[in-house]
Amino acid sequence: ASSSEGEAPIVIVLSWDGMRHDYLDRGDFRALARMTAEGVRAERLTPVFPSSTFPGHVSMATGTYPDRHGIVDNVFLDQARGRYAYSGDASWIEAEPLWIASERQGVKTATYFWVGSETDWQGQGTSYRVAPFDSGRPESEKVDQILDWLSLPEADRPRLIMSYWAGADSVGHDDGPDSESVVTQIEAQDTQLGRLLDGIDALGLWQRTTLIVVSDHGMTAWTEVLDLNGALHAAGLDAVAIGGAVVQVHLKSPVPDDEMRAKLEKILEDVPGAVIHKGNALPESYRLQRHDRIGDWVLVLPPPYAATRSRGTELWLMKAATWVGKTFGMHGYDPELPDMGAVFLAMGRGVPDEPPGEVRQIDLPATVARLLDIDPPKDSEGTSIW
Q: Which segments of the chain have a pLDDT < 50?
């Protein structure tokens, strides 16, 4: 059925994990090319710090930074609650997500695996929700569900749909950002995006629908595998290191600051550009100052260096692979680095002809809210991209 412009707007947001800003130029991706031709493609989307999946997705949902929403990395330790690790529990999030803001303002919303959407937030849920997260769920099923939602009667149809897609993250990590497997993976994602575009065509919904494709971070080459937990142990420190590019060091036994810094400097002496911060004295620009969720010390590593969770044989195999020229992929680094830039594309209702230059993750909720004619989430600090 065709739709008139007078009907209420619809916004669909897809996040493609690990899609670097320049990946779109790596192949003939017909659906992405259509979005670029009929809509806009930003030069880059700049992540929050650290440029990792869970902080990024929650910032794209709340419009604010990790120091406010509380998700300071994919894995961290909370002094009161303990270990957070890739959690789908929304109670960890301390700022209002977009899907809650939209429901609060009368816009029916559907979420499909977006980080933080798997459970109610402060007692509030969404009209439609697919959970729990399943990494094996194909994008084809997500497209089927999105089109089913769009096909519902007007009174039941969600007007905000947010879905997480696999993007190119896993293959980028495993094979490096320059591998051909990245192109193959994007081709598969693009095929499903094409099915979604065709479905919106068939439903005649473009006059009232905006489709946005974003990502959480880019990807860069990782060739220097660091075993920081092993190094801490070898230095006689009772401590644990958590993280890859940004590493939280938690002391289990107190160590004088001067002695600890000297030992950390010794451990990192072969890592040019590494920066060591006391956990309670991080630069304001990081927007990461959360004393209850930050380590006693924070190590910020430059590419191509990163720490690994691997132990034993797995660690040895990773190091051996790099010795013979194997490249892995990593993110989490300074979001201003070119390779950390992610994608932003939009087409449909309300999208201007002029493509934006650099956009920020925190600007997504304000942009969606403007398109839906509602207020952004309560803690949003971003501004509408157009």
A: 1-6
